Amino acid sequence: MEPLKVVVLPDPETAIQEIPAENLLQEAFRADGAIRDLQEQIKILEGQIAQWTVHREKCIDQAEELNQTEQGSYSLEVTEKSRTTRTIIPKEFFRHFPDEFVKVCTIPIGKAEKAVGGKSVLDTSGCVTTSTAVTRTRSVRYQPRD
């Protein structure tokens, strides 16, 4: 397995103060590269974690099948926890609390369209409102000058 290259970055609070104004875009471009490298390392580590998790589970499964709960200094401990999940029954909630239902109700648009037979049916019903959100993305590109 190839060792990961660790990227050590300066403290962002102090680093920005030390960058001359004429190098800010170059530094932002360099930071983009470091971010991509770190994201790739995260993907690699997540893959390794998944592989080790499968390996661990196989070992524990085999130990349980063989009824091996102790092996030298190692012991297998199995604990079970139960968790109770509460779920609202929408019809009953609406029947008992119609005003509150309207205040807290959220319906995914895709599920609503599927339930009533499509986008056009839903759009003409007056049940849909539209809002627009603007996302601003900033990036720095490098293009060598001729």
Quick summary:
The chain has 6 helices and 2 strands. It is mainly alpha-helical and 146 residues long.
Main pleated sheet: 2 strands, antiparallel
Category from helices, strands and their pairing: mainly alpha
Number of E strands: 2
Strand line-up in the sheet with most strands: 1-2
- Output mean pLDDT: 86
Secondary-structure element pattern, one letter each: HHEEHHHH
- Kindly report how far apart the N and C termini lie: 42 Å
Helicity, as a percent range: 40-55%
- Secondary structure tally, helices: 6
Low-pLDDT regions: none
Shape assignment: flat
**Rg to the nearest angstrom?**
28 Å
- Percentage of residues in strands: under 5%
Descriptive overview:
The protein is mostly helical and 146 residues long. Among the domains are: 63 residues; 34 residues, no CATH class. Helices cover 52% and strands 3% of the residues. The protein is built from 6 helices and 2 strands. Strands 1-2 form a two-stranded antiparallel sheet. Strand 1 and strand 2 form a beta hairpin. The chain is flat, with a radius of gyration of 28 Å. The protein starts with 11 loop residues before the first helix and ends in a 23-residue tail after the last helix. The mean pLDDT is 86.
Output the keywords.
146 residues; two-stranded antiparallel sheet; mainly alpha
